[in-house]
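Aim 2 progress. For TrbC/VIRB2 family protein, the working sequence is reproduced below.
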Amino acid sequence: MGNMSTLRTKKLLRKHSTSLVLGILVLVVFVDPVAAQSGPPADFEGIMTNLYDTVLLVLKYAGLVALAFGAIVWFTARKNSDRAENGMWLMIGGMSMTIFYFGVTIFVAVLEWIATP
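Predicted C-alpha cells for this construct:
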C-alpha cells in the first residue's frame, strides 16, 4: 500500500519537476533582495499587523457573504438538488469562516492578555 503512494508521488514529482524548480527559483530571486532591504523591527511589526487585520476582514466579510449567499441559494433551490447542495456547502463554508474569525480573535486576545504584564 505504501509502495503505491510512493510511486504516485514520484510520478507527480517527475511530471511537475520543471514547475517546482522554476517556482523555487522565482521565489529566491524575488524574496532575497526584499529580505536584504528589510527595515527595523517596527516596520516588520507594522506589516504583520496589517496582514493580521486583512486576514480578519477577509474571514469576517467573506464568511458573512458566503453564509448569506448560501442561504439564498439553498432556500430558493426548490426541487433542484444540485443547487440545494451547493447552497448548503456555501452556508457551511461561510459559517466555518465566521466561526474561525471569532476563534482567531479570541485566541489572539488571550495571548495578548497573557503577554501583558
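The radius of gyration is 22 Å. This observation will guide construct design in the next reporting period.
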